[in-house]
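Our consortium's second objective concerns turning raw sequence data into structural hypotheses that experimental partners can test. To show how far this objective has progressed, the report includes one record in full. It was chosen at random from the queue rather than selected for favorable results. The single chain below, 237 residues long, was entered without modification.
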Amino acid sequence: MAHSKVEQPDYDRYNREERNACAHLFRLLHEPTNNYHALRRFLGGNQDVAGFRIFTEVALIRDAYYERKHSPNHFMDTLVSIIAQQERVSDCRLYSQLEPIELRTPNITHPRKILFKGASWLSEKEHTVYKSVQGMFNAKPDLVICVGSQLLVYEAKLTLGFDEEQLIRTRKIAAVWSLLLFSDLGFQDPPAVVIRKVGREKINPDVSWELVKQIAVETYPELDRSRRALSQVAALD
């Protein structure tokens, strides 16, 4: 029995994954045509972009700890100290001061598990700080651009609005990166932190997907994979 061919929908038309859109955006921003026109337009000006670095879903605290886990005390003490200041907590033991010792032994307790394993040994104020430590290890901002003396961190939404609490957490995370890990990101000194939103024009972002689509149209031929995907992102309801 013959079956009529059923036309299948194009996945790009209903893909709602920010990471997929950001992957295509990552490619677009690296296009060198016309002295990185796509990147400069995305940034909103004709600034010098020499030596730029771009990252997606950046788990910087997690990865930096992994590089230092054989001798983590200085890194973790500094991290805890910065977070305690952010949370306005003055009475909190540093990582190297935690007891029992298993809470600060890397092959027994990963830092994101300190709050869980140390629940009965931590004070209320320490709970606040080590809950934020856990969040720092789990966080993965959507897109990060290091350029000049700026650390630009982007939160992207396809169809939903922005969560103010998430933006506050992102700002705190970026502030920690700036103070603790600026050299890991290629800066000589702590950079200025800028938080930006990427979304549909109707939710008033700093950068719209409609603009990203236009940049892709200007950069790629009609059948290019990234141009097609970013054009569909701009059309999502």
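The partners drew two points from this record. The first helix runs from residue 18 to 29. The chain has a mean pLDDT of 93. Both points have been shared with the crystallography group to help prioritize constructs.
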